[in-house]
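Chapter review: from sequence to fold.
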Amino acid sequence: MYAIALETARGILYLHQDCRIRILHCDIKPHNVLLDANFTVKVADFGIAKMIDKDHSPVSLMRARGTPGFLAPEMWLKNYCPVTEKSDVFSYGMLLLEIVGGRKNYDSGANDESSQVYCPLWAFNKVKNGVSFTHEKSG
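The token string follows.
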């Protein structure tokens, strides 16, 4: 899992810094991290990706792009802050929480009173209470 997380980060870094035309993926999530027969990571699905100017200018979006539970706040809150490659980094962090926690990032079917609804709240409560949260079975 460590190698998968590291290779995914390298793929995102390539899109943001090394690619001839910089790309903001806009939908980093487990379904878009593919593994080949050798478990080599391929970041996939660029259907909603945006090109980024070389001068690191923020990207203008007319509507939110991405998957609930992985979207950075600036993707759906217009006046929060500009959309940059940091939005993909936020989504990658949410992906890491799924890998480490062994559970879905966002469970729309969970009880609203439960911290199972949103993974960052669940992880925060685990850390606050001094409980390990690695690879717990989700119910």
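Two observations follow directly from the output. The first helix runs from residue 2 to 18. Residues 2 and 77 are 32 Å apart (CA to CA).
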